[in-house]
Amino acid sequence: MAIIEYLDKAVADSLISTDGAESLEIAKQCISDAFELDLEDDAETKALSLKPFSLDKVFDVYMATQAKLESSNNTAGSSTDKAPVDATPTTNTASGPSDEDRMRADAFKAEGNSFVTQKNYKNAIDAYTRAIDLVSDTAVYYGNRAAAYSQNGEYEKAVADAKQALKIDPSYSKGYSRLGLAHYGLGQYKEAADAYTDGLALDPGNKGMLESLESAKSKLDASSVSDRAASPASPAAQSAAGSGGGFDLASLMSNPALMNMAQSMMANGGLESLMSNPSVSRMAENFRNTGQTPSMADMMNNPELMDMARNMSGSAGSTGNAGATDSGANS
Fold it and tell me: Alpha-carbon distance 66 to 75, whole Å?
């Protein structure tokens, strides 16, 4: 549609001859047929129109931006060494940024996106900042810079940018995704989960946010387990756990009765039964997630585990004596 509008403008501005104008009419018809455009449909032409911009104006802005970028590259020595530098607004109108400034800002955003694909997050941040300097009322610019800040490890700044994006446009679902990522990077898993939940309310089918929410919840659950393990236990559990509150692996390995029970469990299938127990599975999963061994206090306070231990202890005792004989006479 932009090409057809440009051809109309060329005819209206008398840039070509009468014969040329007739040729352009044929060209317009060919374009509309090829792309199935209905030039008589006002709604369709309005939806596809580039106005108030024009194709030649967009091209001029593009060329100007490329010239500035090339000049910057010649100074720095590489296209990834430095972002475009000129972000001075062309006008200061009461109604906001000019159309030209908005186009230039979009060009800076595109440059920032290109730097992100190159993993050059510092220059991406610079490019997005220049876009914001030109047009500060667009949520996407802040959202993109928030993502670049997070990738660069600057999570506090990412939180601020994500919040600003959502302040500008509360319906900007990616803003919640950016906010969740920043909080997650700071280890603030509850805030991250809240942000992802808010984002999913706007975009329920977003697979990335769904997975990120599960990750945040998993970290939050693991943190809660660690907090419970670190809290004071009952006197009996504290006594059983010792001063460390966790496993003394050396003592356990040197305990003959316990080793005898372990060998018995391996021989009679008790180990398989143990690993299928939900409580044991939860402790194993927590160890994989956090790297922390279970607290003896928690184990002593778990009736299911204590019953299982007593049963296995009794079984181990009888099995361990199976090879012995009573050589004494009955009294």
Answer: 14
Q: How far is CA 278 from CA 2, 107, 281, 289, 308, in A?
A: 64, 56, 5, 16, 12
Relative orientation angle of helices 173-185 and 155-168, to the nearest 10 degrees: 160
93, β-bridge pairs: 96
Let me know the angle formed at the C-alpha of 315 by 314 and 316, rounded to the nearest 5 degrees: 90
**Interatomic CA distance for residues 303 and 321, integer angstroms:** 27
Q: Give the contacts of 123 (CB within 8 A, at least 6 positions apart).
A: 80, 81, 82, 83, 112, 115
| 3-state secondary structure at position 153 | coil
DSSP class of residue 82? -
CB neighbour class for 274 (10 Å; exposed up to 12, middle 13-18, buried from 19): middle
| Nearest CA among 302, 293, 305 for reference residue 230 | 293
Q: Could you count the other beta carbons within 10 Å of the beta carbon of residue 321?
A: 10
Q: Are 101 and 89 in contact (CB under 8 A)?
A: yes
Quickly state the pLDDT bin for 30 (edges 50, 70, 90). Answer: confident
- The full DSSP string for 235-299 is HHHHHHH-TTSS--HHHHHT-HHHHHHHHHHHHHTHHHHHHTSHHHHHHHHHHHHH-PPPPHHHH
CA–CA–CA angle 158, 162, 168 (5° rounding) = 145
Using the predicted structure, report yes or no on whether residue 174 has a pLDDT greater than 90: yes
pLDDT digits (tens, 9 = 90+) for 290-302: 666 665 555 555 5
pTM: 0.47
Give mean pLDDT, residues 71-99: 56
DSSP designation for 329: P
Concatenate the DSSP letters of all residues of 87-124 into one string: ---S--BTTBS-HHHHHHHHHHHHHHHHHHHTT-HHHH
